Amino acid sequence: MNTPPQFEILKKISLKPCHTFQLDASAEYWVELHQPDDILKLMDTPVFHRENRFVLGGGSNVLFTQDFPGLIIKNSISGIEIISENHRHVVLRTGAGVVWDDLVKYAVGRGWGGLENLSMIPGLTGAAPIQNIGAYGVELESTFISLDAVHLKSGITESFDRDMCRFGYRDSIFKRTHKGTHLITHITLKLNKSPEVNLNYGNLKEILVSEGINHPDIRDVSMAVRKIRASKLPDPAITGNAGSFFKNPVISAEQFDSLRSIHSDIPSYPAGNRVKIPAAWLIDQCGFRGKRLGDAGVHERHALILVNHGKATGSDLIGLASAIQQEVSERFGVTLEPEVNIVGGDNPLSAGSGSGSGS
Ligand code: FAD
Ligand code: EPU
Question: What is the pLDDT of residue 358?
Fold first, then answer.
């Protein structure tokens, strides 16, 4: 039977409550989809064909530089389904509209390992593959099996396995050749029923030991990650932000040696035969931590987090980010590449000047 569409295309909607930077921007058209079938029905509408389109999840990694002159498609497809399991693994298929941290709690609560280090990352499950979300030594790709996505031109649902997604550090095919071409409807992950904990990152182990937990399970790891995150990242419900504004640059071993010969205390992490350096340290060294340009600011506890102190505009944040990029390039010869997705108008922050590269 041909069911009527379960959506309504709305006009002139404020985007302020729909993204974590809380900027005063609006969308010309807005639609929220709850059923995969509705995507094809939406594709039959004149608005879909006529307008620019942008797929939005939880809005925790976007910066609107202006009002969006087109159609925002908010993805709210729900549901977590077990599609197979045995005594060692469970395979889950999750709607793209499921809140990421709800999925983490669902898995951790059942003792299924693989997502605990990714606790408390804001946003929705459908966006997780876009930049291969990562934290505390784990990236999405380690549990990822596949995703389903509707091609927004043909309407065909395609399946992408891990290889096809071409995951990298804060990177996937959906940030490159497939940028904006597909709407992800579901992702499928494989979790471990006898998980081993991963305590390799930073001070995770020390924090657990300091709490008297010497043999942590995944619930303990999730709790520790939540504690660390709450202590150093601003809560977007209170202070507008999108997490790390830039990626950590990955530079050649030669460039790193030359930087270290001048800055002996520069922190670093191995990245294959290259070296990752914390963008926060570079920005901090340039004196930006706690600084502000109007209502656009650099968080006082973490130099990689740009914040909206209240009435910042997208242009204010772009202005501050440009100043940071320029200073870091001049001082260290390293180009900072934005992690945040800049939506609307030209992107003056896209890579181009200086040496060294992101991702
Ligand atoms: P959005 O911001 O809505 O969208 C991000 C991009 O994905 C956009 O390009 C959008 O078009 C696209 N997109 C979204 N949904 C779909 C879909 N269904 N189909 C196709 N395209 C889609 N990230 C990390 O990796 N690690 C962290 O530790 C981390 N910490 C953060 C901490 C804070 C306080 C904040 C505010 C952000 C943090 N982030 C982190 C960034 C962000 O949470 C992630 O990138 C998250 O996956 C974004 O999800 P979202 O649903 O909010 O996506
Ligand atoms: N540092 C400074 N000044 C600061 C903050 C940090 O010099 O103000 C230095 C310190 O040396 C510190 C190092 O930077 O050891 C790294 O800082 P942190 O451990 O906070 O991690 P990060 O590199 O800034 C990355 C991710 C985060 C993720 C954490 C934990 C990127 C771009 N960011 O942050 O992801 O949660 O590691 O794994 O890779 C995000 O992507 O939005 C995000 C928050």
Answer: 28
Q: Which two tokens stand for residue 23?
A: 């900027």
Is the predicted pLDDT of residue 353 greater than 50, yes or no? Answer: no
**How many angstroms does the Cα of residue 171 sit away from the middle of ligand 1?**
12
pLDDT tens, position by position, 218-250: 999 999 999 999 999 999 999 999 999 999 999
Give yes or no for a contact between 157 and 185, defined as CB atoms under 8 angstroms apart.
Answer: yes
The helix, strand and coil proportions of the chain, stated in percent and rounded to the nearest 5, come to: 30, 30, 45
Using CB atoms within 10 A of its CB, is residue 352 exposed (0-12), middle (13-18) or buried (19+)? Answer: exposed
Question: How far is the centre of ligand 2, averaged over its atoms, from the C-alpha of 278 (Å)?
Answer: 6
Asked whether 193 and 88 are in contact (CB, 8 A), the reply is yes
Tokens of 236: 């977007």
| Those residues with Cβ within 8 angstroms of residue 157's Cβ, 6 or more apart along the chain or in another chain | 36, 148, 149, 150, 151, 185
Helix, coil or strand: residue 225? helix
Q: Answer whether 359's CB lies under 8 Å from 171's CB.
A: yes
116-168 per-position pLDDT tens digit: 999 999 999 999 999 999 999 999 999 999 999 999 999 999 999 999 999 99
339: annotated active-site residue: yes
CA separation (Å) from 322 to 62, 213, 283? 16, 44, 12
CA 237 centroid distance within chain: 17
Q: Is the CB of 287 under 6 A from ligand 2?
A: no
Residue 170 is among the residues annotated as catalytic for this protein: yes
Residues 140, 344: Cα–Cα separation, whole Å: 28
Domains of the chain: 10-75 (3.30.43.10), 80-192 (3.30.465.10), 246-337 (3.90.78.10)
SS3 46: helix
d(CA 359, CA 11): 37
